[in-house]
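Below: protein 1.
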Amino acid sequence: MKLLHVDASPKGERSNSRALARHFIACLREQNVELEIDYLDLVQHPPKPVDESFTVATYTPSAQRTEAMEQTLASSTALCRRVLDADALLFAMPMHNFSYPSVFKAFIDNIIRAELTYVVDSGGQYIGQLGKQKTLFITTRGTDMREGMPLAHMDALTPSLNAAFGFIGVREPSFVNAQPVQFAAAEEREKALERARIELLEVARKWAAETL
């Protein structure tokens, strides 16, 4: 299995989302899944933000682009290829102000590309090209946003990820959300992380059963 592993936490070795992603990979290996890992740290290698030249180039049909336009899109095109070439996608991130970190928003802006990650058919329908990739989102949240909790309605992260990746073809992604990991007592934080580790093992077993 070729796994694209993307980290988006600015906390480095203190990051819970990074640690949980490593745990998931260890779980896959324990299930005898052979992995080829393509790793991307968005904090160390942030995607270029969208600017005017990018916007003009990306909405110009590929057959009409100039060499300068193709150069403007080169890093974005390379990211799209990495996503499309993967068999599985692992995205790990903290929740920042109810949504994803800014570097992950830039990543999304770079990989939603016409003629690459989605196409428009003759009937004007948008068809995502990531239908074959298994996808897992690992997120960490400072407070508890599980269903029934007072702040559950403020989770803008989950629906946004579903919308963006659903548009480019990802269907039924898995979510493992560790919460609360900041604004709670130490015992509650550890319980949240342990719940996440148990869920990650379940996802790893599911992926292994579908792969082996």
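Below: protein 2.
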Amino acid sequence: MKDSTAIHPVILEVARTYNLNIANGVPAEKIHIAAVIHGGLVQAILSEEAYQKKYQTSNPNLAAIKALENAGDKFYVCGQSMGFYNHSSKHITPLVKMAISAKTTFIILDQMGYSYLNVSDD
């Protein structure tokens, strides 16, 4: 992560996507966002304790994720990425649900009617 004291740009982009829909008159109850965290972004969803240990600062992403969850957004993390970065479920915030992989999660969400929108540079 470039700046461990700032909300990760991808988390901000999820919020921006939600806010753009609201600004364009979409009722909140009609907005269903599912964010799939994978690759290096797993560092942004570390629990407060794990984040403090790694970056010696509080995790600024947790409040944003909590606010988005309260708005109805869902967050999933790729189990393959977790393994690659040597993290277990105890290292991440409980606000994010573990998934087998990002690929299978994308397929399942597609079958549920979600549209894919890449908000990451990765």
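Strands lie at 34-37, 74-78, 97-99.
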